[in-house]
Amino acid sequence: MSLEFDIPENEELEDGVPVIEVRGLVSKFGSNVVHDGIDLTVRRGEVLGVVGGSGSGKSVLLNTLIGLKAPDGGSVRLFGRDLRRTSNRQWDDMERRWGVLFQSAALFSNLTVRENVAAPMVEHTRLSKGEIRRLADVKIALVGLPPEAAIKRPSELSGGMRKRAGLARALALDPELLFLDEPTSGLDPIGAAAFDELIKDLSDSLGLTVFMITHDIDSLYAICDRVAVLADKKIVAVAPIKELEKSDHPWIREYFLGPRGRAAEHAEGGARSGGGATRGA
Ligand SMILES: Nc1ncnc2c1ncn2[C@@H]1O[C@H](COP(=O)(O)OP(=O)(O)OP(=O)(O)O)[C@@H](O)[C@H]1O
Ligand SMILES: [Mg+2]
Predict the structure, then answer these.
(1) Ligand 1 centroid from CA 59, angstroms
(2) Which of 60, 110, 143, 184 is the most buried (most CB within 10 A)?
(3) Mind giving me the DSSP string for the chain?
């Protein structure tokens, strides 16, 4: 029985309440200040891309949003609820509402793909073994893995298949919000384009909100509604990619004017160089 909160469990989000709302976030490791006043709002149903140089604090931001690192200042609200004022039980309810694909996929190496995908269901639901197994296989199919992948261990999969297995696990509890950290890194251009397509399809068909960290400028053009830029320890811009192109922030200019930026812009509408597929802008 919780007494101190005004918001009921598992409430539907009121219209207009952002899925993620970060205000004045400060993050530190000792004297290393990684974020110095981050403001960011993620709207329901959007695919938000997050870019920034290596070490700029993208993964730390993700870890903070999912409660793995406590903020050193400022506030984080998920689904309208302040993370600092969340009881254990409310936390457990909230945890079911998001899925995460970590930068390294972070699959359990001693478990099969099916067991990996089943793990969140074993932890958070009371479904029978048979039901869990069936649902895990549905998720495995949903991300485009062949059925025989279910009994393989992560070490027996290609990098792209591991990403898909990680995505299947992130989708295990039918989340409303999906966190992706570099989902296309290490994939060839065709595999990366296919993965983008998959994320886009999932977000369209399931109405998912997606928070996607990426270095992949093609992904920004292909699937992101807006892009947030992390630089100088802050979010320096949040806008649709076509508007960001006009920014005069030095890091953003360099990002677009570098060789990869130019290639992506020329292939605008979607196709990665050599990828062939035409994807809607
Ligand atoms: N557990 C930790 N302990 C101490 N410092 C950390 C820890 N995790 C991250 N950092 C520091 O925080 C900063 C941001 O790291 P982070 O991993 O968020 O970068 P990133 O933007 O995700 O980079 P990349 O694009 O390379 O993945 C770096 O200076 C890093 O050294
Ligand atoms: Mg990172």
Answers:
(1) 6
(2) 184
(3) ---S-SSPTTPPPPTT--SEEEEEEEEEETTEEEEEEEEEEE-TT-EEEEEE-TTSSHHHHHHHHTTSS--SEEEEEETTEEGGG--HHHHHHHHTTEEEE-TT----TTS-HHHHHHHHHHHH----HHHHHHHHHHHHHHTT--GGGGG--GGGS-HHHHHHHHHHHHTTT--SEEEEESTTTT--HHHHHHHHHHHHHHHHHH--EEEEE-S-HHHHHHH-SEEEEEETTEEEEEE-HHHHTT---HHHHHHHHSHHHHHHHHTTTSPPTTT------
